[in-house]
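Students often ask why we bother predicting the structure of a whole assembly rather than each chain alone. The short answer is interfaces. A chain on its own may look different once its partners are present, and contacts between molecules only exist in the joint model. In this exercise we take two input lines together and write out one structure for the complete complex. Read the inputs first and try to guess which parts will touch.
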Amino acid sequence: MATPIDPARSLLLTDLYELTMLDAYRREGMEAVASFELFVRKLPPCRNFLVAAGLEQLVEFLENARFTEEELAWLESTGRFSRETLEYLRAFRFTGDLDALPEGTVFFADEPVVRVTAPLPQAQLVESRLINIVHFQVLIASKAARMTLAAPGKLLLDFGLRRAHGAEAGLMAARASFIAGFAGTATVPAEPLFGIPIYGTMAHSFIQAFANEREAFLAFARSRPKALILLIDTYDTEAAARLVVDLAPELAARGTPVAGVRIDSGDLAEHARRVRAILDEGGLRQVKIFASGGIDEELLARHLAEGVPIDGYGIGTSLTTSTDWPALDCAYKLVAYAGEPRRKRSEGKATWPGAKQIFRRYEDGRMVGDRLGLAEERHEGTPLLVPVMRGGVRVGPLPGLAEARERCARELAALPERLRRLAPAEPYPVEPTPALLALAETCDRLQRERAR
Amino acid sequence: MATPIDPARSLLLTDLYELTMLDAYRREGMEAVASFELFVRKLPPCRNFLVAAGLEQLVEFLENARFTEEELAWLESTGRFSRETLEYLRAFRFTGDLDALPEGTVFFADEPVVRVTAPLPQAQLVESRLINIVHFQVLIASKAARMTLAAPGKLLLDFGLRRAHGAEAGLMAARASFIAGFAGTATVPAEPLFGIPIYGTMAHSFIQAFANEREAFLAFARSRPKALILLIDTYDTEAAARLVVDLAPELAARGTPVAGVRIDSGDLAEHARRVRAILDEGGLRQVKIFASGGIDEELLARHLAEGVPIDGYGIGTSLTTSTDWPALDCAYKLVAYAGEPRRKRSEGKATWPGAKQIFRRYEDGRMVGDRLGLAEERHEGTPLLVPVMRGGVRVGPLPGLAEARERCARELAALPERLRRLAPAEPYPVEPTPALLALAETCDRLQRERAR
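Now the answer. The structure tokens for the assembled complex follow.
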């Protein structure tokens, strides 16, 4: 079948049960307003905090959430849905409210990242893709923030498109890591789509295609890249560094001075020290050393501690797949329906009921603790969730990517010192308010009564 | 900027250096034919074999590889490329050859999965997205195959869209796991796009939205799902199982007999045993038990060994993010240029030169060893790489998904017994042929001579 379904834009990119449940809700007349919240149940042991990201893509998804005629024709052809449900799907628009943490905000377990308030069938239908969009960017921004903290003053670049999980992951990893403090990416569409600076050097295959490194370096310089970064590990790293010293005057004379060299294999620290010495002795103190290949935040921290002379890092797989922890234990749960709070009690998966707000307190510019309360409460501290959409429409322009990046930098600076380190730290305090505790109890009592 | 770039289809979804190098190749007149091969350098410790997948999407990418006018306008606006290079990009089509392992084929370290033979700038430009497409489906098919082997006779379903890394990953994980023996997925577009059976039950939020489980179960039955599977762990799993027994006659009388129950939390094995007992005592021996939540191949194997009465599994995160090993150490390397073999010598990353073929030998229907030789050699055993495209055009229709799935089942059955187990096993023997060894030596000698 050649249905023109674009998974990245299609409302059909969902789990079958979302459609089945929507059908049942409609049949039962259950279209009262529901609130769902997306949160992470438990931080991984290797994450002391998480970073909100992906809100812009979520808003675009909700604004454009509709079925195409081809998709409706396919849904009809399956015989799974009544004519009335198909008509409902044809007219489907998201008309609800969205409250969310601004991108770049630091958050913790149990804290809502996003709240959808909409007629139950709507809030249900958008679940799978909503999680899919937000979870991934949170995952990557949170991983990237660890790298940013581990390598202050270093240029960090996303080189991870090739091993990211598909097209969208490749592109959105560039976006999420930029929010968390990366300087840019190698992924080209990040520049026209998001204004993210793009960087590139040269590949081993380029060097290999020429008779030798000398010819390859000279040819690459003739293509006049914005900054001439030469890859020096294809055959013998130190020999290539000496070749760079040898060629430097000629390249400078031609108007393409050597800006840097890149090392992509072997013991990066050891090679960097030897290459630095060769370059310095050759009068190339201003030439930077870039490293790539198998880099993660632990290595960055080790290099920093040892004073390894690497100026910038291209980071791929460990960033774009969040290798050490490639998925977060997140959930999008019903917290209220038709004005009544709801709560799931499954073992190890119980949730806080009601529409909630996070109140964050600071002392001397550092975060000291959050209160998790009800949305209508007022407490000391900054309320973190802000209105984003009302009645299916944005309440105003979203903060731009630069603003999200600045926010993240401020948030990382305000983290308690122990949470800024890579090692697992005592968790940040998030306390439920008395009103939230009371609501949870009421919820359990109601549930027990109704079960009878 | 509002450039309509669709990352999943755009040739711009690449690393900047691919464009920079293309520019340099063109400037240097280096447009002779190059061969690049994609292979995995080293299997992860937790993988005894890998499964080829993603070829159909790769062929579609190569067939449609071109720049849109908007993309060209943006490229021009950056000032990075000459008019001549922009004209080349405007006319860009992939006119090369593609040889590949058919989807579903088992392979090992150092064995080429895909070979591209094309003018150097073409073969280089497609690198990043080619790896991005093939790596992910290989990753997931290889993970899913472990699950298939660990749970013979069980119904395995992909439930992982929400935590997959983006839209494409969600959809392609459904495809790759189907090749490896999964029965289907919850991800809706997998049916219209690939003909993969889709499955769904109900969510906790559905139950929570009703006053109690009884009302929720009855309402869900009224929506007449193809098979009535009731979710029983929202509040108290065993109490809900008794409720199912209680409601069963009424539901059967209404024409929607209970087909199964689903458990999604707690100790799945323990709950399944108790629920099986409750159902059996209630006369519901035919009702199946499905489980989901935190399942991986180790748990499947444990359940099988213990005879846990679970009939089917919905597997999410561990499958679609390949949690234990979310990226493979793969590379797309130049192996020949202008008729001469090429080889990279970087530390720990040396590659085999020349266009290669894999010759697989069988004894009594089981694989006993592969020879890695040159494409033009003839050896005992089945040559695994087959022609897929010639001159940019398919040589014939690709095998369908059903055929790939059958091939994978045959391959898994033919694996040496030790490799079919989850535990790390002695590696499968892959021997370079004398001709390949000789070529590698020649290559090194040539390189040494040229470096002088």
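Check your guess against this: Chain B touches chain A through 113 residues (CB under 8 Å).
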